[in-house]
Amino acid sequence: MKRLLWPSLLATVMLAALALSGCGGGGDGGAPPVVATGTISGRVVQADAVASGIANAEVTLVTTGSAGLGTAQALTTRTDSQGNYTLTGVPVGQQTIMASRSSDAVYRSQTVPGVPVAANRTTRLNIALLRQDQPEPTSVRLSPASVTVDLNGQAKFSGVVDDGSGTPTYVIVGDIGSISPNGLFTGTQVGKGQLKAYAGSASATAEIEVVGPRPPEVSSLLLSPTEFASGGGTLTITAAINDGDGIASAVAEIYAPAQDVTRLDMTLAAGNAKDGTYRVSFDVPANSNVPDSGGVQAPMKYSIRVVATDGSGATGTSEFVDLTVAGVRPPPPPI
User: Fold this and answer.
1) Per residue, what are the HEC states of the chain?
2) What number of other Cβ atoms are within 10 A of residue 2's Cβ?
3) C-alpha angle with apex 49: 46 to 53, nearest 5 degrees?
């Protein structure tokens, strides 16, 4: 009886092993592997008027990188009345997206390769469609060719399609920031990446580097006027300032001849807190120098600079610019 027990026990073990291998997901009957996915979201806009969205455009995942979907699972969606769309469940990797408006013959379709998709992240992609009545583009010019911006800073790119038919489609390669349909880049993470511009089958590339926060830059300081008659007058101080963190304050420091310092808060006159023009006025007093024994009054000289502080507390200072208040000379003696 003991000799009959071993074959029965061996058969039981083999059946259990087969059952386990069939349930583990590695065999033909197992569950398919889990595919990591992300989301692509943005607007489909008119290339010749990027503020205007295109409704009812079809946005489709054309390729799926290394992690594929079956044909029956091909991803597609349509834009709303403002041109907005969201494509979910996109496999991770470099993907190709196509936007088209098949319901009419007004717009060309646009294929956008190399769209980066990360797991559980949303990639922003705005797609510009060229009009059908424009010739097929053969080149795109993108400027500047390279930029370096602060973290949270911005840079404006100009993409020109060879026939002037509109603005290209922009794609940021590298997890460094985002770009608007009209080419305004905002750096959101330190690192290096590229801007790709597409119009039809034509393309161009620019290099982008986002660096850590830097002190504000006072790129220019202008005084108007730079000289006054002895009676003084009203001075206008204007400074161009930029910084990725945004300017928290701009102060004009006016050093009088006796080293007395007047500090005036400047206000934003044009642009924005990251790249703007600041201005303030100052009433320059009359020349107070005591005339010498010959009745000659020496001119008074002021030195003026601007100190800018950004959102992180870092400061940047301009060079000094001089202001002169003329003196008085006695009239010449009569002949």
Assistant:
1) CHHHHHHHHHHHHHHHHHHHHHHCCCCCCCCCCCCCEEEEEEEEEECCEEEEECCCCEEEEEECCCCCCCHHHCCEEECCCCCEEEEEEEECEEEEEEEECCCCCCECCEEEEEEEECCCCEEECCEEECECCCCCCCCEEEECCEEEEECCCEEECEEEECCCCCCCEEEEECCCEEECCCCEEEECCCEEEEEEEEECCEEEEEEEEEECCCCCEEEEEEEECCEECCCCEEEEEEEEEECCCCEEEEEEEEECCCCCEEEEECEEEEEECCEEEEEEEEEECCCCCCCCCCCCCCCEEEEEEEEEEECCCCEEECCCEEEEECCCCCCCCCC
2) 5
3) 45
Calpha distance 326→152 (Å, rounded): 46
- Cβ-based neighbour number of residue 316 at 10 Å: 20
What global pTM score does this model have?
0.65
Per-residue pLDDT tens for 32-67?
566 799 999 999 999 999 999 999 999 999 865 444
> β-strand 37-46 against 122-124: which pairing, if any?
parallel
CA 283 to CA 226: how far, in whole Å? 13
Domains detected in the chain: 37-211 (2.60.40.1120), 217-325 (2.60.40.2550)
The one-letter code for the residue type at 173 is: V
- 32 Cβ contact list (under 8 Å, min separation 6): none
Q: What is the pLDDT of residues 222-240, one digit of tens each?
A: 999 999 999 999 999 999 9
Instruction: Sort 28 into a burial class: Cβ within 10 Å, 0-12 / 13-18 / 19+.
Output: exposed
Other CB atoms closer than 10 Å to residue 299's CB: what's the count? 15
